[in-house]
């Protein structure tokens, strides 16, 4: 994908496995486009493809970079403690686990790859969280569209106002098809009442018994 063995070894020493993977993603997308792909959809491995992604690919081919936010509908306002909106300001408004790029995204991908070569760190106290804070900056620097398809990147952080709907054995969302469900923050079978790993469960995330369609 255009990265030397020396550079891979260097990143392997300086990064954790998650940081390393995230640092390589722009180069992989750029390589696939250079090999002739009309568009590339990047999805985290902890997800489920439940619907047609072709419309997303066609939109990226025509428009360029498509970014997905963690949620499209506001959460309750901050109270005495953190709110989910405050947390997302800290970790990134845009989610790095689902994005799409096309030929018009090359400049963006080159920029992102250069930054992530040495600054793809999980250090939110220093203003960095993998690739996500860089995506927030990219919004101001490069042409893009915010993907507002309600069935893309469905996750625990955006189930506060809706649930998965089943038609026979096919999942969908109330306002459209379910294209990609992202099991963000993990799922612990020892605590099945939580929609994500218990260490990340907070008062603003719904319990699974409140979202039976997601079971």
For the structure shown, list the relevant keywords.
four-stranded mixed sheet; alpha+beta; globular; three-stranded antiparallel sheet
Tell me what you see in this structure.
The protein has 215 residues and is of the alpha+beta class. Helices cover 31% and strands 17% of the residues. The chain has 6 helices and 11 strands. It has helices at residues 5-14, 17-34, 54-63, 84-91, 106-116, 132-141, and strands at 40-43, 47-49, 66-69, 94-101, 122-123, 128-129, 145-146, 165-167, 170-173, 176-177, 180-182. The strands form 4 sheets. It has a 4-stranded mixed beta sheet with strand order 1-4-3-7, with helices on both faces. The protein has a 3-stranded antiparallel beta sheet with strand order 8-9-10, with no helix packed on it. Helix 2 packs antiparallel against helix 5 (106-116) and helix 5 (106-116) packs antiparallel against helix 6. It is globular, with a radius of gyration of 18 Å. The N and C termini lie far apart (38 Å). The model has no long low-confidence stretch (mean pLDDT 91).
Brief digest:
31% of the residues lie in helices and 17% in strands. The protein has 215 residues and is of the alpha+beta class.
